[in-house]
Write a structure and sequence with these properties.
With 553 residues, the chain is α/β, with parallel strands linked by helices. It has helices at residues 18-37, 52-57, 72-90, 112-125, 157-164, 181-188, 200-204, 208-213, 228-234, 245-248, 272-284, 299-304, 314-326, 339-344, 377-386, 398-402, 419-431, 450-463, 477-482, 517-522, 539-552, and strands at residues 42-46, 95-103, 130-135, 172-174, 193-196, 264-268, 287-291, 330-332, 349-352, 356-358, 406-414, 432-438, 466-468, 471-474, 485-489, 494-498, 501-507, 510-512, 527-529.
Length: 553
């Protein structure tokens, strides 16, 4: 029924009669039988994530006083009867699986101890063919359902192992941010764990199992646990992936078209948009040269990978680099690139992937723009992470995490509500005694998916970052006289000040870097812009644009 909540924010809003429950039980068996006739081998009953079956299991939502409420046996009865209904309708050869909450993140709902009680109640009433234990729910804990790169790998392994030991021999599927075959093999060594559930990794690379079986794990295009796929689905858009751009372009199952005429293609910029275009054009048969200003490929994605929650971005440019090497792309890195350098290579076509530069915030005096006193987040990240650079200059936040924090307050002016902004805020909390984030909006992370936004709020709160909404900074004499940054309400009037200012940095929309565009066009060259050089965007837009150009050039 539409009036039922899809979360655990409170009890069910109306009484559901036992007759209605029994009707639903019968309907589940009927629908499973339809699937069986259509050729399906089985069904999974998903009793988690805050939906109807989960509401019955949760003592937070289920306040019934009849046979379908009360203790764990009563609350599990609906689910057990559905298992029995499918069995009766489809026979013993039809697979019946159950996914139930292992921990929905709410202590008065289904924490692990309650999950164990519900498991025993289910097994006493009707044994499924396999079990799976999911985490999180709608409302406040949905990010547990899709663990992202901000947390550890395989975050639910220990809990699944504990519940599998109580499954009375029913095979258990383990799941939750499993991206590497070695991780999967290690989890299968746990008693009772017989299967590994992969969702997002198969979106990134459908050949994941085949490559693992053939001993080619190094060729797997790894899921970066960004949850962009989930974001596209809930926005009613075709499913897409940051690290599998062919999916969103609906080209995944089509063979690469070989080139009609081999050309020399020069790619200016070694970020992820340029790398994607480069390796794909080379794989199709072109001669490709990549020119890059940095010493290593990856561009700003390599810089971002040094920040909390974004480390897995390295999987994007690492895969692109391996593909480029395999298909003979030539790299000329760590060099200034002007029109003369591009023209000297006598290209037939040019891909411009030169990125973008953050716009100077209008709220701050223009005279400060060239002073170096107020850096943008990219400049600040380069400065802070360079202190921890390794032998190859690869940045890392690990060292700063244990260093003493700098006295004073770091202020971040947030006009770019994307993941990188809040990864930097979290990073600043490791470096400074106090961090204040100012935003003119009514909230933060508004360009992020819900599961990502929940995690951002949770981590910033845990890090002690103070978030102030509907405000903007005011630079006046108070900064120089007493180290206090003024703060105004966006609706008018002063809104206090941030004392003991040690740093002010900003995150703003970006302006494409197109200085090379007109000189190359004047030389008569076909020029294709990709990534931020075309239109500042996110990882998905960068890889997608690069792939599209590499496919068509």
């Amino acid at each position: 029924p539409r009036e039922l909540p899809a979360d655990l924010s409170g009890p069910m809003p109306r009484a559901i009669s036992a007759d209605e429950v029994r009707d639903w039980v019968a309907m589940v068996g009927e629908r499973a039988q339809r699937l069986q006739r259509a050729g399906f081998s089985g069904v999974e009953l998903s009793a988690c994530h805050g939906h109807l079956f989960h509401l019955f299991l949760s003592p937070r939502a289920n306040r019934r006083d009849d046979a379908y409420g009360g203790d764990a046996a009563g609350r599990a009865r609906f689910l057990a009867e559905m298992v029995q209904s499918v069995r009766a309708a489809c026979g013993p050869g039809f697979v019946v699986g159950v996914k139930m909450p292992g921990d929905d993140g709410l202590p008065d709902s289904v924490p692990p101890a309650e999950a164990a009680r519900l498991l025993q109640a289910l097994l006493q009433a009707g044994r499924p063919d396999y079990l799976c234990f999911a985490q999180g729910a709608h409302a406040r804990t949905l990010e547990m359902h899709l663990p992202d790169a901000a947390g550890p790998r395989m975050p639910y392994a220990a809990l699944v192992r504990e519940l599998a030991a109580q499954a009375q021999g029913v095979p258990v599927i383990t799941l939750g941010r499993i991206t590497d075959p070695a991780e999967a093999e290690a989890l299968l060594a746990d008693p009772g764990v017989e299967l590994v559930g992969l969702g997002r990794p198969l979106i990134t690379d459908p050949d994941w199992p085949a490559k693992a079986l053939a001993g080619r794990a190094g060729q797997i295009r790894a899921c970066v646990s960004c949850n962009s796929c989930w974001k596209t689905i809930v926005q009613d858009r075709p499913i897409a992936c940051d690290n599998n751009p062919a999916l969103g372009l609906m080209l995944e199952d089509r063979p690469l078209p070989p080139v009609a005429r081999r050309k020399r293609v020069v790619v200016v910029g070694a970020g992820i948009a340029g790398l994607e275009a480069a390796w794909l054009a080379a794989a199709r048969g072109h001669e490709v040269v990549v020119l890059g200003a940095g010493p290593e490929p990856g561009g700003k994605a390599r810089l971002a990978a040094g920040l909390p929650a974004l480390q897995s971005l390295s999987s994007v440019y690492d895969h692109q680099w391996l593909q480029a090497q395999a298909h003979g792309v030539r790299f000329e890195l760590a060099r200034a690139v002007g029109a003369a350098q591009v023209l000297a290579l006598r290209p037939d076509e040019v891909v411009l992937a030169t990125g973008a530069t953050p716009h100077w915030p209008l709220e701050l005096p223009p005279v400060l723009a060239d002073s170096g006193l107020v850096p943008d987040l990219r400049q600040l990240a380069q400065q802070l992470l360079a202190r921890q650079g390794g032998s190859r200059g690869v940045a890392s936040s690990a060292g700063l995490a244990t260093a003493p924090r700098q006295p004073g307050t770091a202020v971040l002016w947030d006009l770019d509500p994307v993941e990188g902004t809040y990864a930097m805020a979290e990073f600043l909390a490791r470096c400074f005694e106090r961090v204040v984030l100012l935003t003119p909006r009514d909230g933060i992370a508004q360009d992020c998916s819900l599961v990502t936004r929940q995690g951002v709020w949770r981590r910033l709160r845990a890090a002690g970052v103070e978030v102030r909404t509907h405000v903007q900074p005011r630079w006046d004499e108070g900064v120089e006289q007493r180290g206090a940054l003024g703060v105004d309400s966006v609706f008018g009037g002063a809104a206090g000040a941030v004392e003991d200012l040690a740093l002010l940095a900003y995150a703003t929309p970006r302006v494409p870097d197109t200085a090379l565009l007109q000189p190359l066009l004047d030389a008569g060259l076909p020029v294709h812009r990709v990534g931020d050089c075309l239109q500042p965007g996110d990882t998905m837009s960068a890889t997608t644009q690069g792939y599209r150009v590499g496919w068509t050039i």
